[in-house]
Design goal:
ten-stranded mixed beta sheet; two-stranded antiparallel sheet; about 35% helix; 12 helices; binds zinc ion; alpha+beta
Length: about 325
């Protein structure tokens, strides 16, 4: 049952095995119409007809594009942050109720930490400590990520809203994020999983397309079925090739299921959205010692706070600070 993990290494982010490979894609017309609506990301949840395999496919293009615009990230930083945003969208999709998933890629190299938070309503926010890592492999134009993440941990914090968040951590396998997520799912959640996710950039390093998939083996799957899915995953085109298909959601589903029957369970919207507000930061300020607040009032004549997750800036004037100081007396 552990075999599915090893197959995920064939989907190492960005590696292109066969550019000329073509797979047949069947696209129902109403669906085609639907995906032409611009600016809407989505996740489609599916299950094999016999209930033994679950697959999610994601279009996260606008999510990663928004992240790039907000954080002004350079090539490697864009791809690393984008892949982590997709990873947390996948993890949040596996949760029910009002759950929040925080993913922290705590690497030791130049990108620094990458932190993302996703919820079960389809929103995600995130940032990379160093947005300025701008490296590409010259020969193929492929964006490098793993070496700039480095060694470290893949930490997942699951908050069910009970005030008792659950922490779970696995070592980074490659720093390519997709493999690290597959390893986390198999080790920590004991569910054999194959993951493919990537972000492709255009000639100007702007986000062209972003997305991915998760395939999981559910209890009751027969050995020969697992072998069949495994073979298909191993032989599927590189994730970047699939993402470049005209309709990558359908291309991913075809690559995962082949001719096996499956059901679409749901289709949900995804988006980059921060939940910060002036009130929230006012709350944070109110936890500071009175002397600090007085210093801000007297020396800086106010305070300015920028949200790490979305770069929105909030200004607090002397009157705001005065009120906080009065509440502390
Ligand atoms: Zn924010």
């Amino acid at each position: 049952m552990q075999r599915m993990t090893t197959t995920s290494s064939t989907m190492r982010g960005g590696t292109t095995k066969s550019i000329s490979y073509e797979i047949p894609i069947f696209v129902p017309l109403p669906f085609l119409f639907y995906v032409t609506i611009k600016g809407m990301d989505k996740i489609i949840k599916t299950i094999s007809e016999n209930g033994a395999f679950r697959a999610y496919v994601l279009d996260s293009t606008e999510t990663v594009r928004t992240a790039q615009e907000k954080h002004h990230t350079q090539a490697s930083s864009t791809v690393a942050l984008g892949r982590t945003l997709i990873a947390s969208q996948i993890l949040a999709a596996n949760e029910k109720g009002d759950t929040k998933i925080t993913v922290k890629v705590l690497g030791t190299s130049s990108l620094g930490a990458i932190i993302t938070v996703a919820d079960t309503k389809g929103t995600v926010k995130g940032y990379v400590q160093n947005p300025g890592v701008d490296i590409k492999k010259t020969a193929t134009g492929e964006v490098l990520v793993g070496p700039f993440v480095g060694n470290g941990e893949f930490l997942v914090i699951t908050d069910y809203g009970t005030g008792n968040p659950y922490h779970s951590m696995t070592p980074l396998v490659s720093g390519e994020i997709g493999e690290d997520l597959a390893f986390y799912l198999t080790e920590s959640q004991q569910t054999p999983s194959a993951v493919g996710l990537n972000v492709l950039l255009d000639a100007n390093d702007k986000v062209k397309v972003a997305g991915g998939f998760l395939l999981q083996v559910l209890p009751g799957a027969k050995e020969e079925e697992i072998a069949r899915f495994e073979k298909r995953i191993q032989e599927m085109p590189a994730i970047s090739t699939l993402l470049e298909s005209e309709n990558h959601i359908e291309a991913l589903l075809s690559a995962i299921y082949g001719n096996e029957p499956y059901k679409r369970l749901s289709e949900e919207e995804l988006r980059f959205q921060c939940d910060c507000s002036k009130d929230r930061f006012l709350n944070a300020l109110s936890s500071l010692p009175k002397s600090d607040l007085e210093e801000m009032r007297d020396e800086d004549h106010g305070a300015e706070i920028t949200c790490q997750f979305c770069q929105s800036t909030y200004h607090f004037d002397e009157k705001d600070l005065e009120e906080l100081i009065r509440d502390k007396s």
